[in-house]
Structure formats: C-alpha cells, structure tokens
Amino acid sequence: MTNTPNNILTEMEKDERLKTISAMIDQKLRISTDDANYLYNHGSLGFLGSLANRVREAKNGNKTFFNRNFHIEPTNVCIFTCNFCSYSRLIKKREEGWEYTIEDMMNIVKSFDGKPVTEVHIVGGVLPQYDTAFYKEFFKQIKSHRPELHIKALTPVEFDYIFKKDKLTYLEGLTILKEAGLDSIPGGGAEIFHPKIRQKIAADKCTGDQWLELHRVWHQMGGKSNATMLYGHIESYEHRVDHLNQLRNLQDETGGFQTFIPLKFRNQDNDMSYLDEVTIIEDLRNYAISRIFLDNFDHIKAYWPMIGRDIAQMSLSFGVDDIDGTIDDTTKIYSMAGSEEQNPALSTKDLVNLIKGVNREPIERDTLYQVVKDFTNEVFEDDGQFKGYLSLPVSN
User: Fold this and answer.
1) What's the confidence (pLDDT) of residue 386?
2) If you write DSSP's letter for every residue of 19-51 in order, what string do you get?
3) Is residue 35 part of a domain?
4) I need a surface site. Which of 53, 86, 335, 374 has the fewest CB within 10 A?
C-alpha cells in the first residue's frame, strides 16, 4: 500500500479486521453490513478518511463538483409533525409561516432572470392546496418562462400525500408531473428507514418502504434522484447501516441514484432539542463510511448550508466530492434549526476558492453531473469577475 501514513499502518497491524477491509477497498470489493458496523465501532477518523479518500479519488479523481442553483420553499406550514423538524408550523399556527401562490413563486423564478443558474430546487411543507394540479401548473409555468431551467422538486413525503389525496398511483402522478416539467427528485424525507426509529421521529409521514418505492418507480421511468439520511439523533450505528444497505440494494436494482447526502440532525427549536448534536469528528466519520459502503453511488455530497463551509471543506478529504451549489439566501430549512450558515449564499468565487483551498479541482456541473465549466485554471478579480487562466489549459 503506497502513501499510507505510518499511524494508519500501525492501526491495521493491530487490527486484522481493519486490514482485511482496507485490502478489500484496494481490490474494489464490496464490504458487508457487518464490515460497515465494524468501521463505525472501531475505525479511527484517520483510518476511515484514508479509505474513503481512496474510493473518492478512484471514482472522481481530484474533482469537486458544485452547481448554480436556488431554492423555492412553497410553504413551511405542514399537516405532519416530525419531532426533529424546526422548520414547519402546524396549521393551527399557520400565521407564523408562509404559503406562497404560484404567482409568488414565479416572481422568485423571474428574480433569477439573466443569472447563470441551472437548477431550481423545490421542497416544502405538506398542505391540501398544494396538490397534483397545483404543481402541474407551477412546473408548466416555469418551463414556459425558462425552458432550460432544471426542476428538481418534491420529496416522497409530498408526493405520497398529494397522490393519495388525488387517488393516483405513484406511476400516474409522477407521469403527470414529468410531462409538466419535473426533471429530477431530491433526496429529502428519507430520515431513517428503520420502522422503530421512524415511528419515534416521523410517525405520520410516508414509511421507509414507500420512500424507496417512489424512487423505484421514478427510476423505472428513466428519472434520476438523490438520497439522504438524517443522522445524529436517536439512531444507532446499526440503524445507519441498515439505511445505507437499503439504498445500496435499490441502486443495484435501478441505478437511478446520483448522489448520497448525509444530513446532520440540528437541535434548535424542535421536539428533540434535549439531544446533543454529534461532533464534527462524527460528521466526518459518517461521510467516510458512507463513501466506503455505497460503492454503487457515484457521488457523496456535503450540504454546506447545513454543516458550514469550513466543515464542508474538511469533508473533501473524507470521501466527499460534491458540496452543492451557490444557493442564494432562499432556503430556511437548516438555518431555522441552528445550522452554522444563517444566510446560506456563496458566490461562484467563494465556492471555487473554498475547493481550491484544499487542492481540489472545482467543477461546475448541472443537475445531472454534466460539466458546465472547469474552474481549475481560472482566477477571479476581488469582485468575483473572471480574470483569466492561471495557465493555458492543455488541449486533448
């Protein structure tokens, strides 16, 4: 094994199981759920980072991806009561929240006219008026106004509710919305699949099996989607591994997932505020094990508005190859839960410099991971405007 720190070698020499797992990674062999549980319980941060970085670089080299996007959250009023949620407001307290009309949201879309965004990310609370017909009309208006804008919208929690309300199967409902302009599905609402944990933290939303089935149907329609896991609350390592394994199994079946995003539980102003948040070390260990275990996922994303730009930068050495986008100050889901980023907006210059700061190559992508622009050899003036190349790019 080359370029392996001496302390990592010493750790493997002391633990034959870790040595075996490391050899499996070198041979690009799949580790088992037992192996993953062992890594959670016995792998040090340095060891896990070393393994995850090897997987990351084998898949994506030194590239780190980002995109230019903005968020629209139709409402934060919701019929569901998830214990971990700091974002939503019950209907009886709807005066504390917002409920946008299609016109309201189209005004947000139009505010980005002339700006080089490629994606609009749409998720929010669940209310009866936000039904299939509502989103069909909204998506059609977006595409009519800006046809090239990629619509990544709604979670299985939202889909499950509106399709049941409208007496539609998943296939019927998704077909209607795809024809209206839906391009891909984000990964939200997965939380933890294990029913015992899900019952305690999100009892009234769709089940883990329903979440997986909605994505299965979308993949079978030729669509792409993302996946998430909410970690750092009452779940055990075994529950995390079970969650990852169910995602890996579905990916084996459909190949429709693009990226996996671990989402950290934040404890501000929710019904689980009595819990301490996990440490940064645990965040990085979780990124690393996710990268090691999910061998059939091309990308692991650190959602920087949730964990902050500094930790997102650190995560690029622990298996992460994507840090999301130049999110304008339009998302409140994590800032309301106490995330480090209270005004989540980064310029392209900020993101590029953040990535270059740890010697990675910044690549602007679209939602489907097609390269929009390689910023590796570019520099900016202080105002963020492109100045020129650091060196002439080599033609291939």
Assistant:
1) 41
2) HHHHHHHHTTPPPPHHHHHHHHHH--HHHHHHH
3) yes
4) 374
Interval 60-70: pLDDT, tens: 999 999 999 99
Residues 247 and 302 in one domain: yes
Please, are residues 325 and 362 in contact by the beta-carbon 8 Å criterion? no
For 194, residues 6+ apart whose C-beta sits below 8 A from its C-beta are 208, 235, 239, 242, 243
pLDDT at 280 (0 to 100): 94
Same domain, yes or no, for 24 and 87?
no
pLDDT category at 391 given cuts 50, 70, 90 is: very low
Residue 1 placed within a domain: no
Amino acid identity of residue 376, one-letter, is T
* Claim to verify: residue 67 and residue 86 sit in the same structural domain: yes
Cβ-contact 278, 237 below 8 angstroms:
no
Q: What is the pLDDT of residues 134-164, one digit of tens each?
A: 999 999 999 999 999 999 999 999 999 999 9
Can you tell me the mean pLDDT for 172-178?
98
Distance CA 76, CA 61 (A): 39
Residue located via tokens 């909410």: 230
CATH number at residue 191: 3.20.20.70
Do 95 and 191 share a domain, yes or no? Answer: yes
The answer to whether position 381 is within a domain reads no
Give how many domains the chain has, as a whole number. 2
Q: How far apart (Å, rounded) are the C-alpha atoms in residues 84 and 273?
A: 8
CA distance 284 to 52: 10
Tokens representing 65 are 């991806």
